[in-house]
């Protein structure tokens, strides 16, 4: 695994913070790796209406202020995929 750290929530306390990485070596293609707050039961129930969640997945929340970091991670993921 080769995680490339993109960044953490810019308003973080440096301890309990949402963050984003790119796994450039994931197969069959690069993956985004996101750390966030576990969603509450109401949010999970609403999400399950569209996409049932298996035990191996979680619904998480990340703040909108992280959108620039997620865009950067998406770009890095696409670049990594192009280099394969």
Describe the structure.
The protein is of the alpha+beta class and 84 residues long. It has one domain. The protein is built from two helices and five strands; from the N terminus they run E-E-E-E-H-E-H. The protein has a three-stranded antiparallel β-sheet with strand order 1-2-3, with helices on one face. Strand 2 and strand 3 form a beta hairpin.
Structural class: alpha+beta
Shape: globular
Number of helices: 2
Work out the count of structural domains.
1
Mean pLDDT level: 92
Could you list the spans in which at least 5 consecutive residues all have pLDDT below 50? Answer: none
- Placed side by side, the strands forming the largest sheet appear as 1-2-3
Give the ordered list of helices and strands: EEEEHEH
Strand content: 15-25%
Q: State the end-to-end distance.
A: 15 Å
Quaternary organisation = single chain
Fraction in helix: 25-40%
Task: Let me know the number of strands.
Answer: 5
- Using the CA coordinates, give the radius of gyration: 14 Å
